[in-house]
Design a protein that fits this description.
The chain is built from eleven helices and ten strands. By secondary structure, it is α/β, with parallel strands linked by helices. β6, α7 and β7 form a beta-alpha-beta unit. α4 runs parallel beside α6 and α9 packs parallel to α11. The chain is elongated and about 75 Å long. The protein starts with 6 loop residues before the first strand and ends in a 13-residue tail after the last strand.
């Protein structure tokens, strides 16, 4: 089923990059004609002696709320979209997922603030934890984009990590929403992590193993090219890269070669422990990609559904 969204949700943490993230979200909401929700979660500190939030006993809850709303209003001054400020209290990931459960299908816009070492190993970043838990797509704005403000006007070059799960076949409406009306291009990247078996009809005496592999790669490339033209009719051009390699390395190489504005990658459901031990293509791209990254979760099965989405 094609992936369509009916709202834009922007995570606001009042960091130095908040204005950039908000600009991205406003541009998307304006382009798609959707309502924009700006959510800020106050992660209340717990008193070491008492089990309640430290500022709650002091009667500061309303002050925190008012201050956050004023900051959001300043960020949204003269923004030409319909918007609403949402201030919640609690752990940011939990509050975001709970809020999204009350909305129709949405696109989340957030910023990436990298952490390293043992902190990432044990708790990860907020963005990485959101990636694991969200059932909706998320656009992660990289701090490096602050050096190129014109990118907020539209995305032209999109690199799509294309794997066997087929998530990318749902992307058409979403990419059409985020990409520019003219000059849009999609680059599909498919990494062959293991050798492709020789086709039964191949004549082993007449063709070398390398030639068979090359022929298989070419057939797959043509197949993906044909599918991409069907799924992405809004773009001016589509090209496909199929070759052996490590997915995240290939995607980043193509992104740099094409001066990409966006990398799109699927999120496959797996255990947190498995990801901490072995990592994932998605999390590697979130940390190291040279441009914005859009994560798209695989469709949730009945056992994975959370809440009742309208």
């Amino acid at each position: 089923m094609p992936l369509r969204v009916q709202a834009i949700v922007c995570a606001v943490d009042f960091s130095p990059f908040s204005s950039l993230v908000v600009s991205r979200a406003v541009a998307l909401a304006r382009r798609a004609g959707l309502r924009l929700y700006l959510i800020h979660a106050v992660h209340h500190p717990q008193d070491g002696v008492h089990p309640t939030a430290a500022f709650e006993r002091g009667g500061d809850l309303s002050r925190h709320t008012d201050a956050a709303r004023r900051k959001i209003a300043d960020l949204m001054a003269r923004a030409p979209v319909s918007w609403e400020a949402v201030v919640r209290f609690g752990e940011p990931v939990e509050q975001m997922t709970a809020f999204l459960d009350s909305l129709p299908p949405a696109l989340v816009v957030s910023a990436s603030h990298g952490v390293t070492g043992f902190r990432r190993l044990f708790i990860g970043t907020v963005v990485e934890r959101l990636t694991r838990q969200l059932d909706c797509p998320m656009l992660v704005v990289k701090p490096a984009d602050a050096e190129d403000r014109q990118r907020t006007e539209g995305i032209r070059q999109a690199v799509v990590s294309c794997d066997g799960h087929g998530y990318w076949q749902r992307l058409g409406p979403l990419l059409e929403m985020v990409q520019s009306d003219s000059g849009a291009k999609v680059h599909l990247v498919h990494a062959l992590e293991s050798p492709v078996a020789m086709p039964p009809e191949a004549d082993g005496d007449a063709a070398s193993y390398g030639e068979s592999q090359q022929a298989q790669n070419l057939r797959l490339q043509r197949q993906l090219q044909k599918q991409a033209q069907q799924w992405f009719p809004h773009v001016d051009a589509v090209d496909v890269t199929v070759e052996p390699g490590v997915p995240q390395e290939m995607v980043m190489r193509v992104a740099r070669q094409q001066a990409a504005d966006l990398i799109v990658v699927g999120v496959h459901r797996s255990t947190k422990v498995g990801r901490w031990i072995s990592g994932s293509t998605t999390e590697t791209l979130l940390r190291q990609a040279p441009c914005c990254v859009m994560t798209v979760p695989e469709p949730a099965t009945d056992s994975h559904q959370k809440g009742n989405r309208r």
